[in-house]
Write a structure and sequence with these properties.
This protein is α/β, with parallel strands linked by helices. It is built from 19 helices and 11 strands. Helix content is 47%, strand content 10%. α3 (65-72) packs antiparallel against α18 (389-411) and α5 (99-119) runs antiparallel to α18 (389-411).
């Protein structure tokens, strides 16, 4: 699982304290003990709606506008989880595809987000910064009804901060080593910097590599391990170019396999604790993008969960919280110096480990999910949101030209014609 699926699973677990919960997951998903799971493909709107009618509240992540329009017509409360601001990620995604493709990605992401804001009885976000973003979007898009504001001037009942969380219990070590004395050239006493996730276009994998290269000028026991690379369950055509760029950079400088190690595949969620506990420092870095301002890097939570010192680029919410302000964007010398301060035993490392322990208690899933649990627990007593169906309809219609052209190109005119008919029925409320 990557971040969105992890979040869905953990919020579902937390919700079992106040409700009967069903998780709708794609085909191939493994059963989760204690949770009812239904396998539903994202395009199976008929089945999704049938499930929705069995429940009082539906929590969705990045649902397509046509599904949101159908849900808005049902007697069900809709919670839209916008903890990942995809409309900002879309500005960076697909740079290698050219301006036309990038504009299509951006428009689809924006319309999807607008539809969610128009329909949601509750919007979830990961931080106060993100809350400001969504309040601005609601007002700027004229989606904030005066009746909703008069009922709740704080708007906390409409846009709630539900950050990514972490397990209350500490990670468990792996049955056998996973990095030290396993990866080529990494000895048991070596120091490992762990990049705990994939390499995305808006992240900066090269600065930590340069920092390790600097550190290796005076010591040969420092390694950088990337826990993930490419996105799981995504076609090769839709992968991001940053991964290949990072591999080429490390190979060209003789770092790959010597002090930079890229784990192939994807470490299962339940097994990541063993990797974290073998690491000595958790690292992350990003470019100076708009996405950074509103990002909530969940890999940093894993570092804190494992009690690791954290070194990262300034500007990210969690780095600003967990570190000492972070290092300047792209400054590998400052990055190397920050790592050196916490890499070995001493006052710097002790202070960083103590900071991680201090933050852990406030960032558990139980605490993070509290506003969502409160909404589900007393949803029947809360006034209903005045949904803007016209805005959702406009967002739905506006996405069709781009998706139609892509369907004709990839699947043929016949498939495109059938989907046009189906989507037209959905718009008028006569189809799933």
């Amino acid at each position: 699982m990557a971040g969105p699926a992890i979040r869905a699973l953990e919020l579902a677990r937390a919700l079992t304290a106040v409700a009967d919960v069903t998780v709708a997951a794609p085909a191939g998903s493994e059963p989760v003990p204690g949770l009812r799971m239904e396998l539903v493909e994202p395009t199976e709107h008929r089945r999704t709606l049938a499930l929705a009618r069995e429940h009082d509240v539906v929590v969705v992540q990045h649902a397509p506008p046509q599904l949101l329009l159908a849900l808005a017509r049902e007697d069900v409360r809709v919670v839209c989880d916008l903890y990942t601001p995809i409309l900002l990620e879309a500005l960076e995604a697909g740079r290698e595809r050219g301006p036309r493709a990038r504009r299509t990605i951006q428009r689809l992401a924006t319309r999807q987000t607008v539809a969610a804001l128009a329909v949601a009885d509750l919007v979830l976000c990961a931080s106060e910064r993100q809350r400001d973003l969504w309040l601005g979007a609601l007002t700027g898009r004229e989606l904030l009804d005066l009746r909703d504001y008069d009922a709740d001037p704080s708007l906390r009942g409409l846009v709630a901060v539900v950050p990514f969380g972490m397990a209350a219990e500490p990670p468990a070590p792996a049955p056998s080593p996973v990095m030290k004395d396993v990866l080529p050239g990494v000895d048991a006493d070596d120091r490992v910097l762990l990049w705990g996730g994939g390499i995305w276009d808006w992240l900066d994998a090269l600065t930590p590599m340069r920092a390790v290269q600097r550190l290796r000028e005076t010591r040969d026991d420092v390694h950088l391990v990337f826990l993930g690379g490419k996105r799981p369950a995504v076609s090769e055509a839709d992968q991001m170019g940053a991964y290949d760029e990072a591999v080429a950079f490390a190979a060209d400088r003789g770092l790959l396999g010597a002090c930079v190690h890229l784990h192939e595949g994807w470490v299962p969620y339940a097994e990541r604790g063993g990797w974290l506990l073998e690491a000595d420092v958790g690292v992350t870095a990003h470019h100076d993008h708009a996405e950074t301002r509103f990002a909530f890097r969940t890999r940093v939570l894993d570092y804190l969960w494992a009690g690791l010192p954290v070194v990262g680029t300034a500007g990210d919410t969690l780095i600003d919280l967990a570190g000492e302000g972070g290092v300047p964007v792209g400054d590998d010398a400052a990055f190397a110096a920050a790592v050196a301060r916490v890499l070995d035993a001493g006052p710097g490392r002790d202070a960083a480990v103590a900071r991680a322990a201090e933050l852990r208690a406030d960032l558990t899933w139980e605490r993070a999910a509290a506003p969502l649990l409160a909404f589900v627990d007393d949803h029947a007593a809360r006034p209903r949101r005045h949904r803007d169906l016209a805005a959702v309809t406009r967002a739905t219609v506006a996405q069709y030209p781009g998706t139609l052209a892509r369907t004709v190109r990839d699947e043929g005119a016949g498939t495109a014609a059938r989907r046009v008919a189906r989507n037209a029925a959905r718009l008028v409320g006569k189809g799933p």
